[in-house]
Amino acid sequence: MNKSNIFLIGPMGAGKTTVGKRLAEARGLEFIDSDTEIEERTGVDIPLIFEKEGESGFRKRERLVIADLTQRSGIVLATGGGAVLDADSRQWLSARGFVVYLHASVDQQQHRTSRNDNRPLLQNVPDRREVLQRLFEDRDPLYREIADLVISTDGRNARQLAREIEDHIDRPATAV
Ligand SMILES: Nc1ncnc2c1ncn2[C@@H]1O[C@H](COP(=O)(O)OP(=O)(O)O)[C@@H](O)[C@H]1O
Ligand SMILES: O=C(O)C1=C[C@@H](OP(=O)(O)O)[C@@H](O)[C@H](O)C1
Ligand SMILES: [Mg+2]
């Protein structure tokens, strides 16, 4: 396993992008966000990719980006909330870095995603909370399947969370 890589997984609004930036800065690692990488490669934003190619088109692009980025070393990678849906992506993330699941309650997810309109899965839906709840039920087992560390983000700010992750990574392994 490439222990210099840190991969952040978890639902929309968990704070993967925000915490990832802080963590990378604190550890002198390069920060990469898979959504930003997809936007740079395609030259268009995520909502337009969903509009033109549907979710399946976006997932294909996301899979390619995860395949590539996980081969690097010395990075903090913030993934998109659905990156774990692909079995190969889960395997790459698990094998090539330290995987942190940023957990957030559905209430917190809803609050933290309320101001942005750049998440197509939450646009034009009658009940955003219901969507977030369903996604959480589908995906929580997948996040847990590959997590080396699960951190609850509710009521904690990004700086505290970055420090908590660092503490875990730097903690000496317990002797058996
Ligand atoms: N720990 C936190 N506490 C409060 N607000 C947060 C926290 N983490 C992220 N946010 C805010 O929530 C929103 C979504 O965060 P973001 O990092 O984009 O989440 P993700 O990448 O997991 O979808 C942003 O407006 C961000 O400023
Ligand atoms: O949960 C998802 O399926 C998605 C999460 C988004 O990323 P964030 O988790 O960073 O919001 C982005 O990849 C896309 O809108 C789809
Ligand atoms: Mg993000």
From TrEMBL:
Enzymatic reactions: shikimate + ATP = 3-phosphoshikimate + ADP + H(+)
CDD domains on file: SK
Cited function: Catalyzes the specific phosphorylation of the 3-hydroxyl group of shikimic acid using ATP as a cosubstrate.
PROSITE patterns according to UniProt: SHIKIMATE_KINASE
Pathway listed: Metabolic intermediate biosynthesis; chorismate biosynthesis; chorismate from D-erythrose 4-phosphate and phosphoenolpyruvate: step 5/7
UniProt protein name: Shikimate kinase
Primary site of residence: cytoplasm
The enzyme's E.C. designation: 2.7.1.71
GO cellular component annotations of the record: cytosol
Listed cofactors: Mg(2+)
Gene Ontology biological process terms from the UniProt entry: amino acid biosynthetic process; aromatic amino acid family biosynthetic process; chorismate biosynthetic process
Binding site for ATP: G13, A14, G15, K16, T17, T18, R119, R156
UniProt keywords, alphabetically: Amino-acid biosynthesis, Aromatic amino acid biosynthesis, ATP-binding, Cytoplasm, Kinase, Magnesium, Metal-binding, Nucleotide-binding, Transferase
Cofactor remark from the record: Binds 1 Mg(2+) ion per subunit.
Database matches in Pfam families: SKI (PF01202)
Subunit description: Monomer.
Gene3D superfamilies, alphabetized: P-loop containing nucleotide triphosphate hydrolases
Subcellular location per the Swiss-Prot or TrEMBL entry: Cytoplasm
Molecular functions per Gene Ontology: ATP binding; magnesium ion binding; shikimate kinase activity
Top-level taxonomy: Bacteria, Pseudomonadati, Pseudomonadota, Gammaproteobacteria, Nevskiales
